[in-house]
Amino acid sequence: MEQMQNLRIPLQEIILATNRFSKENLIASGGFGNVYIGKLNISGEQSNVAVKRLVISNSGQGNHEFWMEIQTLSCYKHKNLVCLVGFCDESGEKILVYEYMKNGSLDRYISNKDLPWLQRLKISLGAAQGFSYLHNDVGPQHRVLHRDIKSSNILLDDKFEAKISDFGLSKIGPSNVEYTFLVTNACGTQGYIDPEYAKTDILTKESDVYSFGIVLFEILCGRLAISREYHDERRSLAALAQRRFDEDRLHEIIFPCLINQMNEDSLDVFSMVAYQCLKENRNERPTMASIVEKLEKALELQTTSKVTGIIRVGTWGKQSEDPQNHWSFVLEKHHRLVKITVYHGDVIYSLMFTSKSGGVSQTSEKTGGRARGKIVSEIIFDGGERITCINGTVDIRDGFPILASLSFVTTKTIHGPYGQATGTGFSVPWDKGSLVGFYGIAGKYIESIGVHLKPSYDGIIKVGTWGRTAPGGPQNDWIFQLEKNHHLEKITVEHGDLIYSLRFTTKYKGVISTSKKIGGWNGGDQTSEVTLDWNEEINEINGTVALSRGTYAGYTIISSLSFVTNKKTHGPFGDARGTPFIVPWDDGSFAGFYGMCGFYIDSIGVLLKPTIGEHTSSSSTTHQVHSISEQSTRPSNFKLRDKAKVHCNVM
């Protein structure tokens, strides 16, 4: 209270500072009242200030907001919160005095073509840092929920640094509980208010996150949350942005003048976090601290021109050193895969890919098919439908491996199988990333196939898992990820008739680190150590999935496991029974493992990253099927395994 009293400014000083609230000093007005620019003596110097003269209704509405603003800004200080210079509560006047923000509010610049993408990123990050402070760092027992996040409440100083303002509707809640929520009459601004809050009157920190997601889309799309010029789906930015994101058509609503300024990976990170903010389920929305991390990543990608690159997984089928028979299809920037044409019969003869951008379709050349296919099937993908797994079989034709069958698993359905499911089975699901193309070998038929995958914002993609698919508790999930510049030196495997546990040892600058044991709650029959040379790296795993036996019988587990490196094959460990799986990848891509565990290793997948030599901007990739250089072929030690079909199990 004493601190608040020190902020009191006599009414007469404010009248003089604003030239008696003259029209010449008026800089903004609204339902709350008017804002004037003025000059006050602060610490012995004449400084520009913004004077907000509030309108208080006869019922006293606005009085609570006045005192809430003073309480919040007098207690909490942060470089991204507007600074309260003082206030006046005299002669019926309710006046707030702030540091002057030369560039006004963000909403004035949303559609301004002169505000570049880099500056928009910095404004977004600054605002997120301010909101993260309110949610997490104001004190050990409480947090501040703003309740009225919108672009007009984010002010910009002379350097375009974001400053959060207008705390009149804010609420203070406890932070020393897992979930902070307050039951209060829903309030906020149309177009920004969390639908769950509006429906239930239950306010949570995730309500602020939703509103901030709208602001991020405003910054990206160059328009405000509600556009009254439209009377169709474009009226509400929230609904439009979510729909276009789900349909992989977000680029259609991005502010056109920003497109050529954007690093595509920076855009991917920014748009993903904005989309996650709008999730209907509050538990799926990111925290403000997480938003800060992702926006920092987006800014880093933009300023350093880093590219997340593409990861190649596969191939399955024939391996050839002749680059003339190699083919590759990679989606161009902003293109969406809308159709795959499959020529097939008893095998897969050829493939053709059609993509679309801005209403314009492009179709690749046909790959393979020197022998004509008997059946032509077209796979049409709906808006928002994404491929998440391919599976099929490899058989022998004329003494050489060829692709006998192929299926495409998407977020909506399974397309296929095409061809005849004979021979050796393969399956590869992925997560935390996206498909951007295919590659392989072709001649008379499609002789092999692999996938081009683009990782998520952190540069990692999850491939797998194989094994148990039923969900478990947090104690069942495991992950081992190599730290930067660390070398995987040893894998300790406890096994018997199955894989009981795994333990990983890494080395960095002579320092040895060993992970906790993963799985093995009940011990193991035998222990084996896989020791890797300094220049030896894993580029494939294979194994089998089966049901456990004995005391804990009937559980889906990893029954055997092998680690293939650029030098040799380590294993198999365990008992090779059940359904086989195999997944190869490019040298230099390995980043770790993950899966589920309990008494045994229940499932396993791999973490992959782009190789340094393979970092390629998506804007420079080609849509056409073309040959690949000899340097990009798989090592000749990768051979066709005589394995049966494996199911597409995703964790």
Shape: elongated
Characterize the biggest β-sheet. 8 strands, antiparallel
Low-confidence segments: 176-182, 612-651
Report strand order across the widest sheet: 21-20-19-22-25-37-36-26
List the helices and strands and how they pair.
Blueprint: H1 2-5, H2 11-17, E1 26-30, E2 33-42, E3 45-54, H3 63-75, E4 84-90, E5 93-99, H4 117-136, E6 142-145, E7 154-156, E8 162-164, E9 171-174, E10 181-183, H5 195-200, E11 202-204, H6 205-221, H7 237-246, H8 264-277, H9 288-304, E12 311-317, E13 326-330, E14 336-344, E15 348-357, E16 360-363, E17 367-368, E18 375-380, E19 387-397, E20 400-410, E21 414-419, E22 424-431, E23 433-442, E24 446-455, E25 461-467, E26 477-481, E27 487-495, E28 499-508, E29 511-514, E30 518-519, E31 526-531, E32 538-547, E33 556-565, E34 569-574, E35 579-584, E36 590-597, E37 601-608
Antiparallel strand pairs: 1-2, 2-3, 3-5, 4-5, 6-9, 7-8, 10-11, 12-24, 13-23, 14-15, 14-18, 15-16, 15-17, 19-20, 19-22, 20-21, 22-25, 23-24, 25-37, 26-36, 27-28, 27-31, 28-29, 28-30, 32-33, 32-35, 33-34, 36-37
Helix pairs in contact: 4-6, 4-9, 6-8, 8-9
Structure overview:
With 651 residues, this protein is of the alpha+beta class. It folds into four domains: 2-99, Phosphorylase Kinase, domain 1; 106-304, Transferase(Phosphotransferase) domain 1 (Transferase(Phosphotransferase), domain 1); 311-455, Aligned Prism (Vitelline Membrane Outer Layer Protein I, subunit A), CATH 2.100.10.30; 461-609, Jacalin-like lectin domain (Vitelline Membrane Outer Layer Protein I, subunit A, Aligned Prism), CATH 2.100.10.30. The chain is 17% helix and 38% strand. It has nine helices and 37 strands. The strands form nine sheets. The chain has an eight-stranded antiparallel sheet, with no helix packed on it. Helix 4 packs antiparallel against helix 6 and helix 8 (264-277) packs antiparallel against helix 9 (288-304). The longest helix is centred in the first third of the chain and has 20 residues, at 117-136. The radius of gyration is 30 Å and the shape is elongated. Mean pLDDT is 86; it is low at 176-182 and 612-651. It is found in: Cell membrane. Keywords: ATP-binding, Cell membrane, Disulfide bond, Kinase, Lectin, Membrane, Nucleotide-binding, Serine/threonine-protein kinase, Signal, Transferase, Transmembrane, Transmembrane helix. Residues 21-299 form the Protein kinase domain.
